[in-house]
Amino acid sequence: MGAILAAYPLTVGAQQNERARRIAVLMGVADDAEGQARLAAFRKGMHDLGWSEGRDMQMDVRFTSADTDRARAYGAELIRWAPDVILANSSPVVAALKQQTKTIPIVFAQVVDPVNSGFVDSLAHPGGNITGFVSLDFGIGAKWLEILKQIAPRVVRVGVLRDPQTPGGSGQLGAIQGATSSFRVELKAFDVRDIATIERRLSVFADEPNGGLIVPNSVAASIHHKLITDLAARLRLPAIYPYRFFVADGGLISYGIDNYDSWQKAAGYVDRILKGAKPAELPVQEPTKFELAINLKTAKALGLTVPPSLLAQADEVIE
Question: Do 63 and 125 lie in a common domain?
Fold first, then answer.
């Protein structure tokens, strides 16, 4: 009898583990403070929906740091784990997963252009095992240029740190190009993936006066955000960025989606899938929440006066 009673708690534990749902997470970003903050937003979203890690759900997380080979290897590893659903972010990560499974549900938290990337049939009707949340409104390109001119009105030459391998990158660049005549600026594109030469090329660009910088959404820009913000400061280039964490690291100004909002919303889709919903039935959602952040210390260092109207619109001001 003693042996039977001693074994009883183990049996209960095993049954609880069997009931736990498996969530695999493949992050296209680095395992840094920003990557962990996005993951924490998802965990909070799941907790708010009544899920408890270690009780009724298990998570297995991998970070790829924008390495496509690592994305494929980690994707295969996580699929062998047989998860109930995979949470992913970045187009290269979703592309790697799409090649390896057509049945396991995939929810992406941040992808630029899922239709043209071939991940879904349409935003309203995804049509397969993939759905999620778009990280960009292409019209934001013109907004970046407008805000940059507001905070640095003397800018007449604008460099764009684009990633040509990012799906939707040409659309972002096109939106900025379409607004150049309205703001009377000349545009020059730089490849953000070419880190070895970006400092040299931007240094040449900054040799001429009245230059500014736009950094669109891309995994590469996020991975190298500290290098980029430090370089812009050293070259005295007013720059606008896609996310608030660039400004927290010394960038001048940012305008873009609330990163953590999309990760918390992704929890809602994961919850629904774990309760029986199909990804094909869950429409891809476009961003609705945008935020403006300004670093007044950086503005002062660049000799810029932030217009009161722009300050009034800011969601966060760093002094």
Answer: yes
Q: How many domains does the chain have?
A: 2
Contact 139, 175 (CB under 8 A): yes
Tokens representing residue 123 in the block: 């935003």
Instruction: Return the half-sphere exposure (C-beta side, CA atoms, 13 A cut-off) of residue 165.
Output: 15
**Strand-by-strand arrangement of the 186-191 sheet:** 186-191, 157-162, 211-214, 239-241, 253-257, 290-295, 316-318
- Give this prediction's pTM: 0.85
- pLDDT tens digits for range 83-99: 999 999 988 999 999 99
State pLDDT tens for residues 282-316: 999 998 889 999 999 999 999 999 999 999 999 99
- Both tokens of 48, joined, read 């708010």
Same domain? 18 vs 120: yes
Contact of 227 with 215, CB cutoff 8 Å: no
Residues 125 and 72 in one domain: yes
User: Residue 195 belongs to a domain with what CATH number?
Assistant: 3.40.50.2300
How far CA 124 is from CA of 121, 149, 296, in Å, comes to 9, 36, 41
pLDDT digits (tens, 9 = 90+) for 248-261: 999 999 999 888 99
Q: How far is CA 104 from CA 2, 89, 107, 197, in A?
A: 43, 16, 10, 40
| Alpha carbon of residue 296 to chain centroid | 25
Q: Which domain holds residue 271?
A: 2-135+259-288
Tell me, what's the pLDDT at 138?
A: 76
